[in-house]
Each structure stands twice: as C-alpha cells, then as structure tokens.
Amino acid sequence: MLKLQNSLFLLSLLCFFCVFIGDASVHEYNGEKFVSKGNAFVVHGGSEGIYSSFPDPHNVTAVGGDSYIRFEKISFRRPKEFANFSSQSIQAVVFEVEDRETIGGSAYGGQRAVCCTADLAKLGVCLEGEVIYRPSTENPTWPKVFGISFNGDEEVATLPSKSVQITKTGMYNLYFIHCDLNLRDLTVEGKTVWKNPTGYLPGRMAPLMNFYGFMSLAFVILGIFWFSQYARFWREVLPLQNCITLVITLGMLEMALWYFDYAEFNESGIRPVGITMWAVTFGTIKRTIARIIILMVSMGYGVVRPTLGGLTSKVIMLGATFFLASEVLELVENVGAVSDLSGKARLFLVLPVAILDAFFILWIFTSLSATLNKLQARRMVVKLDIYRKFTNALAVAVIVSVGWICYELYFKSNDVYNEQWQNAWIIPAFWYAYSDEANEDFDKDDTTLTLIQPSPTPSKDFRSAPEASPVQGGNRASNGDLEEDKTE
After folding, report:
1. Which residues form the signal peptide (predicted)?
2. Which of 56, 237, 279, 280 could be bridged to 330 by S-S, CB 3.0 to 4.6 A?
C-alpha cells in the first residue's frame, strides 16, 4: 500500500527544488552606447569561464576541441554630424581575470586611469589616448588588445574578423574601450562567439548539462516506482496523492526540458527560447503545487479534517500569487538572457518570492503545530508519530536551506570577480541533491499507516477499539473541526 510516510517525504523532497541559469555564449551588440568610466568610455562585451583548448599551454599543436573568442562583424558607428575628423583608436581588450591588474595605471602613485594620460606618456609607459596595459607575468602575449580608428569622414569603422585562441583555463572578460572625447554617442554592433572545447555552453554551466541528465534519469526511476504503486492501488488513492503524481510528472518534464535546453545551447550557442520557457513554467508550477500540498498536509487535510473549509480560497490565493511572482522572476532571469540581472533589478524580483516563501513556511509550521495538538488530543498515536517525523524533516530541510543560502551569500561576496566559476554549478545542484539523504531516514520506519480512502476492512494502523469507543465525543470533536474549518 502507498505509505503516508513516503508521501510526506516526497512532499518535503519536491518542495525545495529550484533552478539557476547563467549567461549565453553568443554575445550580440545591438547599438550599445559607450559609457564614461573614469577617463575612459567603455562597453562591457562579456565575461565567461572558458576551459583551455590544450592540456599544455605551451603545446599549441595538441589535438582537441578549440576554445576561442571570435569577433564577427564588430562595427562602431558615430553620428554623421561628428564624422568630420580622424579619431583615436577604439580598442577591444580581452584579459583573464587574474590579469586584471595589468589593465590601467597611474602616474606617481596617483589616481588609477584606464586611458594613457599626458603624464604617463611623458614617462614612456604608454601612448597618450590609448588603453594602458602591460604584459602578464605568466603569459607575455596577454592581455589581447587590438582596435580600429575612424579615418576622415567615415561614419562606420569595422573591426577585422578575429579569433582569440584560449590556451589557459580561466574567467575571461571583454571590454570595448576608447579614450577620444570627440567620439560622442558612439555605438557598437555585431557579435562575439565564446566557445569551450566541448561546445558553446559557458564553462560554469557545462557540468549542469550532465547533472540535469542524471536528474532526469532519477525522476524516471522515481516515477516508475510511484506510478506502479499508484496503478496498484488506484481505487484507494486520495485527491492529495493525485497532486503528488502531478508534481512528479512535472519534475520529470522539467528536468528533461532543462537537459534539452542545455544540450541545444551547447550545440548552437543560443538559448532556445521555447524550451526555456516551458522548462521555467513547468518548474514554477511544480514548486507551487508542492508548497500547496505540504500546506494542506500540515493542516491535517485527509487526516484530521475532510476539507479545508474557508481556508481553501486563501490557500489558492497564496499559491497563485507565488506562481506569478516566481514565473516573472524565472522568465526574466532565463529566457533570452545574455547577462545576469543587476543587483537592484534582481532584488526587486527576488524579494516578493522570498516574502511569499517565508509566509508559506510560517503557515506550514503553524498548521503543523495545531494538527499535532489535535492528534495528541484524540490519542491517534501512529499518525502523531508520523506527523512528528514529518515536522522534523521539514524543520531540517528549512535549516539546511537557510544554511545553504548563507553559504551562497558568503560564496558570492568573496568571489566578486567570479574566480571560483568552476565550482559555481554546485550551488544550484545542491538543491536537488541534499534531500536524497533524508529519503534513507524515512525508509527506516516500517509504519504502514495509509493516506488513502478507508476500506471496509478495519486496519490495525488506526486507533484501537478502546480508543475509538467514545463515539459521541468523537462526533462532537469532528463537528468542532468542521466548524473550525468554516471559520478559519
């Protein structure tokens, strides 16, 4: 028979699943304007972790997949009214994050500048009006700096197509920079293609493709077990268990869609918008339903109360609000995204989801406390024991989640330049993996109390005959619960 303990564990397992997605590998520039940064004008062209093409950086003839950053049809456009002079160079600067100190400099220990000043030019360390840089101590050919200038009355200057070979694993940054005060309203168009040895998937996202493949298989195994039990006892299952079946089905679809999303991304370098949207939507529906089911179980639905009564509309309203807030956040973060959201923009979208999640948690534990009191008052010992285990499992899940969130904050605050990008995939993967250990703890209990419709045959899992004898008191308690359902 389908066990209540297994059902409750699946609820706690599925509730805390979440997905995080990163940058794209084809960066397009559609008229981005240069912005003033210090004494320079800058457009950020992209940042990605890239694995080396060759195991040995000095053996550039080794056989293997190519890693590169390719510049395709990069052009700079200036307004016609300012196209009456030859300009200084507009430069593309590619550097590995460990070499960030090689960009820029200062004269006599003064303020650091990106563009070469008259004082620095007098010292002979750079040419006035160009980007300041010096060779890396590890690889003298880096950073890569090259550019183009406007001649005469040209309105468009096109950078020659170029590929920068990546021979060292690292986090690479691209900036377009110019130092000419006369180049007003300058814009950049075109695209750059960033490729790893195994495909176009950014390095920090590459392990997630295999991870989602593994999770798809895990959900299939879970689905086979659940559906076999569901088919075996289909006459006895409750509507609540139909909801659990839906959550498992959505989980299978979500994991499969994320895998295909990453596989297509890796093959073409462009996020497939349709697949991403469906993956986001299935995941959001799954998380919403999982939270609602846990809340319903915490209220004692199907155990100490037959309906939710007046609480039904409130539960639906909270679920719908959570779905909308989560869907907006996930769509903005994932569909067609090339760069991560700014801190303020992400906070604006994350805050409502966090508040609603906190409200779910508060309501769940408040309801669990009331349900435990009812079970104890009615001396329903077996159900009380299972609900206590369920409460403990949820408490542990919440504590672990909060602890991991604190670790995320620590990780990100100490990795300002994304130098730990090779380990970043562990953060989203953890939310799926950490609950597996809890499954073993639940399976140790051999209780067979069911969360199904009662059959005509009495079951030893329910109260014994002496406990069930006060019929009138029990009826009064049931009537009280019904009144409570209507008024809550």
Report:
1. 1-24
2. 280
8 Å CB contact between 388 and 372? yes
Strongest mean pLDDT among 8-17, 300-309, 352-361: 352-361
Same domain, 60 and 148: yes
- Number of separate domains in the chain: 2
Residue 13 lies in a domain: no
Q: What is the mean pLDDT of residues 213-231?
A: 89
Share of residues in the chain with pLDDT > 90 (%): 27
For 341-359, b/e burial (b = at least 16 CB within 10 A) is eeeeeeeebeebbeebbee
Rounded mean pLDDT of the chain? 78
Task: Kindly compute the dihedral angle of the four CA atoms of residues 91, 92, 98, 99, in this order, to the nearest 10 degrees.
Answer: -30
Per-residue pLDDT at 59 exceeds 70: no
From the list 239, 488, 247, the residue with the least C-alpha distance to 366 is 488
**What's the angle, vertex CA 65, arms to CA 60 and CA 70, rounded to 5?**
85
Structure tokens at 480: 């009280």
Q: Are 75 and 156 in contact (CB under 8 A)?
A: yes
Single-letter amino acid code for the residue at 28: E
Q: Which of 39-43, 58-62, 187-191, 407-411 has the weakest average pLDDT?
A: 58-62
For residues 209 and 354, state if they share a domain: yes
Which amino acid would we find at residue 99?
A: D
Report how far residue 254's alpha carbon sits from residue 263's, in angstroms, rounded to the nearest whole number.
14
Give the pLDDT score at 5: 44
Is 140 exposed, middle or buried (CB count within 10 Å of its CB: 0-12, 13-18, 19+)? exposed
In a domain, residue 352? The reply is yes
Cα distances from 234 to residues 91, 187, 257, 445, in angstroms, run 68, 64, 29, 24
What is the domain extent for residue 352? 203-441
- Say if residue 244 is in the same domain as residue 324: yes
The answer to whether 114 and 216 are in contact (CB under 8 A) is: no
Question: Where a domain ends, among 161, 195, 229?
Answer: 195
- Render pLDDT for 87-114 as a digit per residue (tens, 0 to 9): 889 999 999 988 888 888 776 666 778 8
First vs last C-alpha separation in the chain: 33
